[in-house]
Amino acid sequence: MSGCLEQFTTSDDDDSPTSDTSPSDDHPALSVLESYYEAAQSDDPDAIREYLHSAHPYNRVESDESGFTYEPAPEADAEHEIVDESFDPEAMSDRPSVAFWFEGEDTSFEAAIEGESAVLASSTVDTTEDGLPVERTEEIVLLTEDGEWAVFFPYGQSMEIDAEPVDDEAYDIVTDVTFDDESEQATVSLDGAGEVAADELRVYAESVGDYSRYWQQDGDTLPPVTEATTSFDPDGDEIVVTLLLEADEQVVIHREQYDPEN
Questions:
Q1: What is the CATH number of the domain that holds 245?
Q2: CA pseudo-torsion sign 213, 217, 222, 226
Q3: Where along the chain is composition biased (Basic and acidic residues) (predicted)?
Q4: Is there a single domain that holds both residue 146 and residue 179?
Q5: Do residues 23 and 111 both lie within one domain?
Q6: Does pTM top 0.70 for this prediction?
Q7: I need a labelling partner for 29 at 20 to 30 A (CA). Which of 61, 117, 249, 253 fits?
Q8: Helix (H) / strand (E) containing 78
């Protein structure tokens, strides 16, 4: 994960992909990913299906039966890149969030990926929340199906952040963390963020390797945000809140574990 310092390292036993090939800016999967993001911002709930693999969760959901409602993504600038052209989709086989969607289905995960090509892509989206800039980065696996590239599943490289929260009242701004299983979103409540001298606030989800960033274009303090969100793994995760200080120093200010059994 870019931006992580030495104290924020990937676990040695994770299934992080490696590649001996050089990522290509004109890979055909990129145009599919770009079109998918554009379609997600439309008012047509069927617009994105053209770019999704048949096993993608969105293609398994029937709105009238599940209570699922479609909401277009907010307009935002996005940058996409291929980070692994020889990604092995087998690395996702033990992910509960992936296996769930193949339970009781006619097509197994193994059958879906057999003989197909896969790439791992990274998408960084710049948007705003409450008028403040927010950057979100996620990794996505694209898989061929009937000879065409399609968006398969999100992929998060698990992270291990060893540092404990610093004991400093000046950074005691996290008041609560709530978890929504249905949306798979964690919300961090904040108080006094605008008074903290820092370049950036980051909210990580360790299991999925996803994070959100909050900063001000001008100024020496954080933006006065009262909430920060990130996706998380409903099967178990830990939210870690950090501050990026001067000279790229990053400190942990809060940890919150999520256990679905509690």
A1: 2.60.40
A2: negative
A3: 53-63
A4: no
A5: yes
A6: no
A7: 61
A8: strand 77-84
